[in-house]
Write a structure and sequence with these properties.
It is built from 6 helices and 13 strands. It has 293 residues and is α+β, with helices and mostly antiparallel strands. The strands form 4 sheets. A 7-stranded antiparallel β-sheet has the order 3-4-5-8-11-12-13. It has a two-stranded antiparallel ribbon with strand order 1-2. A two-stranded antiparallel ribbon has the order 6-7. The protein binds manganese (II) ion (2 copies). One manganese (II) ion is lined by residues 41, 43, 181, 225-226, 228.
Length: 293
């Protein structure tokens, strides 16, 4: 035991010298039995899986893998939106960079594909709604800018985007600041939303952008640590929501829209948490989060 403590001393001194997060991270126990503080890191966005088996090949225009340092996703060329975007959230991604607001086409899409522009949404009654939020990428201007690519946007009813969707985003950041790390996947479903112009709208920009009927999100919450796919257990908190893409969602909190991952898997045809053992998926995906806020 004494030997182990001496071996850990340099590591402890190093940790003390580093910038420490404002919130005490969850202590982890090493194999030697000593407790050291786990520092939040920036982890693989797809550590828990690639829900639709997307690949970075232009021969798959309906399930094209987008890989960026700040998030990963699957893009649907004909819909003009992502199928889903997935990102890791911990305090290691959070800083003090201001919102860059530089909405722009994604030049990384294969040559010849239509690149959705910010103007395609203007006057539509729908917000350019982030999947990976601006507020989750505030470490550097470059990180924040990446969230303003149009491949990270879906046409979202303002009351959805600015109220319940935003409330859940803020809640997720509060969990990260409390010593957790999160794996989040979000995307659109169906077509036909109702924005601030009223009525039902199926597409924008002469059919180039599909307006979803609902938006959904899966959030896996783990205490900060490493080896994340192997740490998801039957007791791990998993939050799943599905919110209608309409203006009438304003009076309810995001928690009203909780559902199960199984329900979202049926809706989308994707397999979430595919790198988590099937026996664990079976438990956490069937449960509807009921934790009080
Ligand atoms: Mn981790
Ligand atoms: Mn699954």
């Amino acid at each position: 035991m004494k030997k182990a403590s001496l071996l850990l001393l340099p590591a402890l001194l190093w940790l003390t010298a580093c910038d420490q997060p404002a919130v005490e991270p969850t202590p982890v126990t090493t194999s030697a039995g000593a407790r050291v503080a786990a520092a939040p890191t920036r982890d693989d966005h797809l550590a828990l899986g690639n829900p639709s088996g997307a690949t970075a090949s232009s021969v798959f225009p309906t399930n094209y893998l987008l890989v960026k340092p700040q998030y990963s996703g699957s893009y649907h060329q004909a819909k003009g939106t992502a199928n889903w975007v997935s990102w890791h959230l911990s305090q290691a991604w959070l800083g003090s960079t201001n919102r860059q607001d530089n909405f722009r086409p994604d030049a990384s899409l294969p040559a010849g594909w239509y690149r959705v522009t910010p103007a395609d949404y203007v006057g539509s009654g729908f917000d350019r709604g982030h999947l990976c939020p601006s507020g989750d990428r505030t470490g550097t201007a470059g990180d924040n800018s990446a969230t303003f690519l149009m491949t990270n946007m879906v046409p979202q009813a303002p009351n959805n985007n600015q109220r319940i969707w935003e409330q859940l985003e803020s809640y997720c950041r509060s969990l990260a600041k409390a010593g957790n790390e999160l794996y989040i996947v979000a995307g659109p479903s169906g077509s036909g939303g109702s924005g601030s112009n009223g009525g039902t709208t199926r597409t924008l920009a002469s059919g180039k952008v599909t307006v979803p009927a609902s938006v959904w999100k899966v959030v896996v919450v783990l205490p900060v640590g490493s080896g994340d796919p192997g740490r998801v257990s039957p007791s791990t908190r998993v939050i799943a929501v599905r919110m209608p893409n309409t203006q009438s969602v304003s009076t309810r909190g995001w928690e009203y829209y909780r559902t199960s991952v199984d329900e979202l898997e049926r809706l989308t045809g994707y397999d979430f948490l595919s790198r988590v053992p099937v026996s664990v998926q079976a438990v956490v995906e069937a449960r509807v989060d009921g934790q009080s806020l």
